Amino acid sequence: MKKATTEKTNPMATSGGCPMINPRYSFTAGPVGGTLLEDVELIDKLQHFTREQLAPRNVHALGSGAFGTFTPTNDVSKYTSAKLFSKDHGETKLFARFSGVFCGREEAETVRDMRGLALKFYTKEGNWDLLTVNIPVFGVSDAKSGPDTIHAMKRDPKTGEWNTGTVWDFTVTHEEGLHQAILLLLDQFGTPSSYRNQNWFACNTYSFINAEGKRSWIRLHLLTKLPQGGLTSAQAKMVGGEDPDFLRKDLRQSIEKGQFPEWKLCFQTMSEEDGYKDGGYAFDPTRSWCSKQYPFIELGIIRMNENPSDHMFQTEQVAFSPSNVVPGIGFSPDRLLQGRLFIYPDTQYHRLGPNFKQIPINMPINNPAVPYIGGPHRHEKAHFPAYYPTLKDGLQPLHDPNQLSHESNAHRHEEPAGYFNYENDSGPSRFDQIRDTIKRYPNNNLELNIARSLSKVTEKEIVNKSLELLRKVDDGLVDQVQTLLSKIQKGDESILTEGQRLVRTLQAVPQV
Ligand code: HEM
User: Which atom of ligand 1 approaches the CA of 201 most closely?
Assistant: First the structure.
């Protein structure tokens, strides 16, 4: 309220704080003369304009935000000492960013893609970031394959075009990613009709540590209160053509109307001992944990109730990382997670500069005494002396090992170090899990979406290998895909979308 009054009463100024004399017309040598270099207002305005955009995120570039709250509803002190979860804690404020994964910042939001939801909980013990996608399993289980999957799924770096061939090539050479690929080809997950009606999954295995220092492994999930929903490919293309910002508008307008989207935050838990059984599949994000064996336990309710006031200031400058945990929440040997603990802050130093945690949207609310100095764009004064230990009145660490939960004993190093293939056969079968998913989501146009996708692949060998891989899931599925694929290849009008027919007609026009 107070801020708005100040904004109204202060006159428009240059970035140096001097009143702007003429924000509209340049200072020229007479009515028809050239612009004078001493028009410092013009220079100030143009210089700022050319620096207005931040470098986009390498993935998840397309995003929209919301403020909200987390309210604990359950006594989970048996599992975690994290204060935000204790039943009498009350609300914790949060900022959320919904995103597409592979599509660029200016593309239509409805293209087939995975979606992300990142949450920053501003707790009294520091920021806890929870990063999720709308698909329960991830496509790779080792961070070393992370950049490769992104190179294969994003626009082809050679041509700058989308290339379905590289997507299927990656899938057939990384069998562990087939479940994620199938999920993406189900309308419910690949082309959601709203961010609000999606479930969100952290995929990676984290840990909870209780007040006695006892650790258990966890998987975190957000369950929507709305019926889940997706668009068919044809609907998604029509909606995206009509309104490329469809999903973000749906989110903003629902919050404006007071229809606040809500999710139940839940976790599955596994004992520390069990995590090391069955080849350690519990740490493999390409496989889910059976919900009958590891039932969902409620932590609380997430509600989004306020729209951001400045897209660049909040939604673009926010920086989430799985490395931001609070006491009571820790990591695991999940080797995808391990790589992600490094890559997020690293990319954010590059994208936002070394003091990005002092940008207001990233700033913890507990006034942290950070022992670092210098760097561009500092907003917080440093603490001196800038070394430790000291006989002077310097910063002191907290000497309570239970508070340092994420550092304590997450790993067992009983075997010699090495490069291990993580595609182990122990634990639940990936292919059984894929078959379960297909059964759970009928009427999602899976066969048609696969056939349409494969019809864009020009390399015959990749198509054949993809069909061979799909046969490991279900013969019937492949037979249907093959029938549909040959219809598309023959140009059967009944199966082509209007867009496909138009593209074929345009491509048939002779070029002179
Ligand atoms: C090795 C695999 C992965 C790599 C290499 C990777 C890389 C990245 C990078 C570079 C960003 C941009 C960060 C920024 O510039 O601020 C990002 C954002 C994001 N990632 Fe990942 N990621 C991986 C796996 C995952 C997984 C498993 C999840 C969740 C289940 C996830 C969820 C997200 C979300 C939600 C964002 C968007 C954050 C935002 O809105 O700012 N990522 N990822």
Answer: 30
Convert 264-292 to b/e letters by CB count within 10 Å (16 or more is b): bbbbbbbeeeebeeeebbbbbbbbbbeee
What integer pLDDT is reported at residue 2 of this predicted model?
Answer: 42
63-139+174-362 CATH choice from 2.60.120.10, 3.40.50.300, 3.90.226.10, 2.40.180.10: 2.40.180.10
> In this predicted model, what pLDDT tens digit does every residue of 65-105 receive, in sequence order?
999 999 999 999 999 999 999 989 999 999 999 999 999 99
The H-assigned helical ranges of 353-491 are 430-440, 446-454, 460-471, 475-489
Contacts of 199 (CB under 8 A, 6+ apart): 134, 136, 221, 222, 223, 224, 228, 263
Cβ pair 193, 230 in contact under 8 A: yes
**Cα of 320 from ligand 1 centre, angstroms:** 8
Domain spans of the chain, in order of start: 63-139+174-362, 430-490
Q: How far is the CA of 431 from the centre of ligand 1 (A)?
A: 26
What pTM did the predictor assign?
0.94
Whole-number Å distance between alpha carbons of 374 and 384: 12
Provide the residue type at 246 as one letter.
Answer: F
